[in-house]
Amino acid sequence: MSQTNGIATLLKAEKEAHEIVSQARKYRQDxxxxxxxxxxxxxxAYKRQKDQELHEFESENAGSVxxxxxxxxxxxxxxxxxxxxxxxxxxxxxxxLLVNAVISPSFxxxxxx
Length: 113
Fold this sequence. Notes:
single chain; mainly alpha; 1 helix; 0% strand; V-type proton ATPase subunit G; proton-transporting ATPase activity, rotational mechanism; hydrogen ion transport; V-ATPase_G
């Protein structure tokens, strides 16, 4: 009988050990699921925060880009106007220089000749 009691005790201990291992596995799986869910929620919160920062940055700087384009356009127009005014003032002098260069050429010996 003692052998039967020993075997029964071993079977009972093995069954309890199997239950403990089973509970430990279930606990580990539950913790892993919870960790995944927590990580996913943290990632989502971080994405929302960074999206919000991006939208704020874009809204703050959207007007400045348009203003810079307008400033650059007006600056270019001012420079073009100035160049046209200088060209119209110097037009007669340039024409005289061209006529003089054609009518009375100056001959110079080239330095390599």
